TrEMBL record, chain A:
Keywords: Cell membrane, Membrane, Transmembrane, Transmembrane helix, Transport. Its main location: membrane. It comes from Phytohabitans maris. The keyword Aminoacyl-tRNA synthetase does not apply. Residues 95-300 form the ABC transmembrane type-1 domain. It is a multi-pass membrane protein. This is ABC transporter permease.
From TrEMBL, chain B:
Residues 29-50 are annotated as: Disordered. The keyword Signal applies. Residues 29-41 have a biased composition (Low complexity). This is ABC transporter substrate-binding protein. It holds the Pfam family SBP_bac_5. It comes from Phytohabitans maris.
Amino acid sequence: MFRYIVKRLLHTIPTLFLLAVGLFILVRVVPGDPVLAMVGENATPEQIEGLREQLHLNDPIYTQFLTWLGDLARGDFGNSVQLRRPVTDLIMPRVPVTLTLALLATLLTVVLAIPAGVVAAAHKGKAADRVALSASLVGVSVPSFFVGMMLMLVFAVNLRWFPTSGYRPLSEGLWTSLQGFVLPAITLGALYAAIVTRMSRTSMLEVLSQDYVVTAQASGFGRRRILYRHALKNALIPIVTVVGLNLGSLLGGSLVTERVFNLPGLGTLLLSSIERRDYPVIQAIVLLVTLTYVVINLIVDIVYAMLDPRVRYADK
Amino acid sequence: MTSFLPRARTVPRAVAVVLATVLVATACSSSESGDSSGGDSARPAPGDAPHGSIVVRQYAGMRSSDPFSDSNTSSWQFYRQVFEGLVTVDSRLEPKPLIAESWTVNDNATEFTFKIREGLYFHNDQPITAEDVKYSLDYFNANAEFDNELGEVKSVDLVDPLTVSIKLNEPKASLVDDLAAPISAVIVPKGSADNGAQATRPIGSGPYKVESFEPEVRAVIVPFDKYKPVDAEPDGLSGRRQAMLERIEFQVVPEDGAAAAGLETGQFDVDIRVAPSEVERLDALPDVSVLKADGSSWVVLSLNLASGPPIDNLKVRQAITYALDRQKFLDTTNFGYGRVTGGYVPPEVNWYVPGAHDYWPYNYDPAKAKQTLAEAGYHNEPIELIAGGPPYQGSNAVVAEQQLSAVGLNVKVNKLEHATFLSRGAGGKYQMNSAGGTFMTTPDVFYVRYYCNASKRYGYCDPEYDKIYDEATATVDREKRKALFAQLEKKLKDDAVILPLYLSSTLYGVNDRVNGLQADTFDSVRMWNVWVAD
């Protein structure tokens, strides 16, 4: 198992390298110029050229790439073109924000959506099933900016239970800090909860129709025991995949939610960096998100083995 | 000169209109105008300890605390509280003393000497000297993030410990105005900006100093107790500046909806850019007011004359101007908050020349547009109108497409992502674009754009125009320079080169507990002389 993990991790190196090359070229192929996002309209061509020179944007692209790669190997993401700060300094304070948001949204998904899916499957075609299906349909269909704005209107503006937007660091108290995450986590979680509910329901229905469940029923086991001990464990495998991969996309895909609730996470930083073509920052965030995906994928595979004794990874 | 209409929720409309008119009239006759609310009785006296704190919604920017790295209006709403320049402007954009107490200019506008006020300190308690001024101007001049504001600087020389002189290679009569502009060169301690160090350790000399700064997220400023204000009545950005609050937090909130919600719940005390769509709702709230001032933010369509046919045809350009119903743009995209004027230059500044800056020979006339188009020999050549700035610019492009198509012009809107939009503009790879900005200094900033080969952006080239421009640049006498500017203005309009749509209003949202905030024509937020009632 250990060797398997090491091998998998080593496999990620070429993946990340190819991504780095592709990414590096792609951000530069897209039209737009970081310098033009900085200067005023009356800047002379000489000034613009001077700034390009100063920022090494005139160096040949392979020189720029090798410099970046060399720095990267030493764990240095370089400096932001416009913010004039090391990229690491910009990203680090934002990781906890996005991570908290993603974990809370995932927690919400797991706590609400899996039981909802199980209940729906157990009561297939009955009221509970229809409620779960309709609710998840709404969750999938309604765009998150709308969900966010509506939650804000009701719970922040009218009821004043939560702040309308913004982030308070943990140093200002756990509850103060968490309060700001409740509405964004629900907004972000709503979409994925909906997907997971439907996924859990389908997976459960499939398992429930299998022979061993029928056998268990015939043996006189209790309904609850069959449902939660025998069926759910097997139904969980596809669900774990979805939840795991969702966590990855939550980390990279919380752009809209972060923007609506004004959370200073990686999503807002990525968005503003793209707008001003801040190449080093874009590259660093995309690489980071990719790395997270890879690691989560690995964890998902390991969890498979724990859930299903038939899954074993060869130590070769 | 600013004016504002107070919230008139409980007053019948007719009475409100009368009251508002009276208020505008009185506001225009006094130097202090547009105070947010409250009487002067509670206003702290000079020397009173700062008290209370507020949270300000910032709509964008604040990428860095380094004022040399960013020329965006939004960021400067913050920098202005912390950093000061040699000179500043009053409510008519006339230069006034700030760090410099006086200045002299030689006859051909190539040498400018500034005398620094005594007893001033930086936020690190170091006294302000001529060396710091020289360092700051040299540093500013070497940085490209700003327009070419100081011109061709030959040298900045120390005359004595409190006097510097700026020598230029070419005349630039507007130098003092440009240094005084609400966005310009600030003075920092010698060496403090090297390698962008102001980004991590901001040191200014204003009434407030930076306590903490998180790029694009938030900043906290607190009073600087060694600040020595100018001894003059406040007028615009000039005069006495007093830090009356113990703490001001700027929070970057890009979403207008979230900002309005925060103002409503009291999470923000001040919003320095209320979206026109939110004004009515906010005005209806019991403890929030929207301060409104006639603004100087110009909203325009730009033409690139170097793009070939059909834009290089004068008749086609004239037809375009006749086809535009500018009031409709204002009503549609800005909910009527603004005014349709003759051009970019607002009537509030001394540079405004009646007969030139309000000269507009192309009032909306679709029939005339069609006729002019026929005379032009226009053969349905396509015109691409690009947009990619703030949302209002996209809306304006759509309105323009509709109005221009109505007279038979083949116009297609192309909405671009912001960075692409910027590079197409700068590279002159467009025919028509939807744009905007804020007028903050002398009209030079516009006229230089139409100087032959000044950039690839507008493609206007006229030797006579360049001659007048050169003469204006070398004319120190303000009245004479004004007359030359008026000639340039008329020329641009006769040649149908500029398409001004409207000047949008300055709209600030403010909680009633905040006093002394002024909605400013030039949209330059000042947090000094602002206090809270509680």
